[in-house]
Every structure is written in C-alpha cells, then in structure tokens.
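Hey, resending since the last one bounced:
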Amino acid sequence: MKSTMKRWALNEIGRQNLKLTEAEIPTPGPNEVLVRVNAVSLNFRDKVIIEGGMGNGMPMPFTPGSDMAGVVEAVGPGTTRFRPGDRVISSFNADWIDGKLNNNAKNPHYNTVGYAFQGVLAEYVVMSEEWLVKAPQTLTDAEASTLVCAGLTAWFALIERGGLRAGETVLVQGTGGVALFALQIAKAVGADVFVTSSSDEKLAAAAALGADHGINRKKGDWVETLYQLTNDRGIDHVVDTVGGRNFADSVRAVASHGRISLIGMMDTHDTSAPGAMVLMKSPTIQGIGVGHRRALEDFVRAVDSVKLKPVIDKSYRFNELPEALEHLDQGAFGKIVINVG
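The structure tokens again:
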C-alpha cells in the first residue's frame, strides 16, 4: 500500500481556502479501523460548515464531509466489529449508538463527523470501529454513501420516531436528499405522499418516484391547495426541511394530533408558529438531528429488503469538489456524490 494520500483540507474558514493536500496515510490504533474511501455524499450542512455558518468548533487543519462509503483496509489492536475487506459506511453522530443522545441542556454539543471530528473527504480515514456500519449489499458505494445523513434523517423522522403506518399521509417539502428519501421510505411503508416544490419539472420527477400528489408552492397558497386535496383534514406527518418562517405553514398543514419533523434550517430566521393553532391541533413537534447507529443499521437492513435505490443527481471526481459545492448551491434533485476511489 502507498504511504501518502490526498485529502481536502481547510486551514481557515471559507470555501476559497479549501485545498487538495497530500498527507501520510494514518495508522489505526486500538479499536480503530483504516478505511479506503470510495465515495462521499455531500450535504447542505457541509457547505455551511466550510463557510463558517455553524461556528468554529472544527479542529484545524480541517477535512470536511461526514458521509462516506469504502472498504476496510486495516484494523487496529482489539478491533472486533470489522475486518479487512468489509464494505462500510460512516455513522454521522459519533458515539451515539442507541437510545437518547447524552447531551448538555445549556450548551448542546454537536459531536459529529465532519465538524467536531475530522471529516471524510480523503482517500483514507481512520475511525473508531464504533463509528462504522456495514454497507448495504444491494447498493454501490456511491449509493451507500447517501444513507449516512440524508437517508438516516428521513428514516429517523418517519420510522424510528414517527412510527409511520400504511394509509397515513406524509408531506415532503422540496426534492433534496432528505426529501426524496422521505418520499421513498413513506411509499415503501404504504403512505400517501404529497410533495411541494417550486419546479413543475421536479414535481414530475417526484411523481415518477411514487409521489401521489405534487404542489407547486409558487402557484398560490400551497397549504390551501393541500386543504383541498385532503378535504381539510391536513397531513399526518409533515417533513419540514426548511425551518424558520416556513414552520408556520407546516403547522397550518399538519392534521389534528399529527406530527411535524423539523429537519432543515435553510431559513435561518427563528422558528415560530401561531400558538392557538398549535394548542388546538396538538401536534407532536420533533427536532431531528439525524439519528443513532442502531437506527442506521436498521435502515441498511430495510434498504436491502425493499431494494430502495437512492437518487443521485450527479457524481463528481475527487478533484472536482469546488464544482460539486457550486451544484449544491443551486439545489439538487436528490444527492450529490464525490467519487474518491
């Protein structure tokens, strides 16, 4: 095996400071695993972190990216969960294995790969064996890399915490990575899925994936359209990928005793909604910070079982990260993937 590798690194905040650098391939220590990275899936939060929009909690020099699929190259002493040759994906929330996240109420931590810990935009990474999950057998590495954040977020919202059942209604806002995973997961369960978008073309593509109803949110009040489609009943599960001021419309859209999963913060304004409507409808409102490793393992099994295929808008070469981030700026239909290997 060669002794050096390429990795993307920041010495200071700012996309203009991203450099493709050369580094020594790390050696796994006790209970650690060396992974040859084959694919990295990008998230909106990656560009926010690179640009300094989530504070300065990253160790510098810093390698961004959280969602990786690859092959175990070597293991350190005492490692029992994996062996060389295993196909693996990363787990987004470091050390959150199952149950409730052990966090601080006053100053909640954000101990995630690609923020508090070094990220995965490198040819090789070393991680604790606890931060990895076996990859699904039915997906390529490019496809498998998309499950780590976007896929697990949708699964955690609808299945792990949402208890979605056949015959219920789901509202998916937009056509990004989380939204399309939510659409596919909901259809696999047997739910009736509504999708909002500002693009008729994207709504048609969502319909081809199984969406039952498409609403162009630029053509009038989309919540009023939703009322007409549901005979004023509203939606059982609202997947809010925007946040901020959009949350008030999510409250308008949710059915009595329904559920709203607040996932995205693309609108950076404070999240608010009319208190009277919240009281009268009594919805469950849950913030979703991706999910734990056990849920990711459950999701991987489900992906293999139902043959779910992630939607990849476009793939880029490893040296094309700047172009991939520009694509992320414009919005993607599904996921953007960097092919590393």
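Residues 147-160 form the longest helix (14 residues).

Sorry for the duplicate.
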